[in-house]
């Protein structure tokens, strides 16, 4: 007897999610390489282009160790894409923030990612809203992080 976690529909959905994730990372890595960045560097730059943030928060969002983020930010900083600056609300905390060159690079990276944009364009606003809400529900509290 199949359990609810191993029924054919659940297994198919899990497989489809895995395929979506794999294709996303493949395209992201390819787009990053066009800017001489690793996928991880591109993802950090993309996050920072939304808003500057401390290393620990970047690490939480990327589900990795803060020391890894420090190395990534160091490399982005050496290329003039990111800078460290004091957090205006707590000067003891350093924020990583994109430079103008970093914001432009992040924009070009986003513009070069068609994988999600093209299939999503075939969905109506209502369908995209349902998909977003289902994904948020699946992720629970992590969806806003």
UniProtKB/TrEMBL annotation:
GO terms for biological process: response to stress. PROSITE patterns: HTH_MARR_1, HTH_MARR_2. One of its GO terms (molecular function) is DNA binding. Residues 84-93 have a biased composition (Basic and acidic residues). SUPFAM superfamilies: Winged helix' DNA-binding domain (SSF46785). It comes from the Bacteria. The keyword RNA-binding does not apply. Pfam families: MarR. Keywords: DNA-binding, Transcription, Transcription regulation. Residues 84-106 are annotated as: Disordered. Residues 10-140 form the HTH marR-type domain. The keyword DNA-binding applies. PANTHER family: MARR FAMILY REGULATORY PROTEIN, TRANSCRIPTIONAL REGULATOR, MARR FAMILY. This is MarR family transcriptional regulator. It comes from Streptomyces niveus (Streptomyces spheroides).
